[in-house]
Design a protein that fits this description.
The complex is a heterodimer. Chain A is mostly beta strands. Chain A has no helices and eleven strands. Chain A has a single domain, classed as Sandwich (Immunoglobulin-like), CATH 2.60.40. Chain B is built from no helices and eleven strands. In chain B, strands 2, 4, 5, 6, 9, 10 and 11 form a seven-stranded mixed sheet that branches. In chain B, a hairpin with a 6-residue loop joins strand 4 and strand 5. Chain B is globular. Classes of the chains: A mainly beta, B mainly beta. The interface between A and B is medium-sized, with 21 and 27 residues.
């Protein structure tokens, strides 16, 4: 039962353009969401998060938008840079972190 | 249904005891991973295995050991040498290291 879904396995974007990574969830009990970035042979690193009391959180080039009615969130990267090429995971904890649900990831390639 | 399972969901141990966390996948994935999640931190890689009978240390391998005798199984042993074993442990698998990762539901280990 995939409670957090990332339906796009891969995405290619030109350098300088916007990258939009999408994530859908099914469990209305989720109230906090995280995005992780992962390079090959390394563990995922935390990127940005958003609480369900907000609909937008911005950190430099990264912005996460949350649409609770649609159970959808998205990560925007603008402008995209080649160093952003990585796999991005959407995640949601349940029961104050006792259980994490992760999407399967989207592999972003930023083309110079 | 294909998936990745971890057991048990909650585990309690006394200090000084070794404990083994189970991770099984029936996705026919070659690569498997163990991560540790602590409050306020991103996932940190403990060990990973690209193929049966082979594994590599991740960022925080000290105090842990693994084995990969079967493709489906990647158990993690938390030894008494691990100074701060209480954490949430996540197992994951993927077809290849650069691809999507499927995560298990996690095991919350508490050592007192």
């Amino acid at each position: 039962d995939q409670q957090v879904k990332q339906n796009s396995p891969s995405l290619s974007v030109q350098e300088g353009r916007i990258s939009i990574l999408n994530c859908d969830y099914t469990n209305s009990m989720f109230d906090y969401f995280l995005w992780y970035k992962k390079y090959p042979a390394e563990g995922p690193t935390f990127l940005i998060s958003i609480s369900s009391i907000k609909d937008k959180n911005e950190d430099g080039r990264f912005t996460v938008f949350l649409n609770k009615s649609a159970k959808h969130l998205s990560l925007h990267i603008v402008p995209s840079q080649p160093g952003d090429s990585a796999v991005y995971f959407c995640a949601a904890p349940l029961n104050t972190g006792n259980q994490f649900y992760f999407g399967t990831g989207t592999s972003l390639t930023v083309i110079p | 249904d294909g998936g990745i399972t971890q057991s048990p969901k909650y585990l309690f141990r006394k200090e000084g005891q070794n404990v083994t966390l189970s991770c099984e996948q029936n996705l026919n994935h070659d690569a498997m991973y163990w991560y540790r999640q602590d409050p306020g931190q991103g996932l940190r890689l403990i060990y990973y295995s690209q193929i049966v009978n082979d594994f590599q240390k991740g960022d925080i391998a000290e105090g842990y050991s693994v084995s990969r005798e079967k493709k489906e199984s990647f158990p993690l042993t938390v030894t008494s040498a691990q100074k701060n074993p209480t954490a949430f442990y996540l197992c994951a698998s993927s077809i290849q290291d650069s691809g999507e990762q499927y995560f298990g539901p996690g095991t919350r280990l508490t050592v007192t």
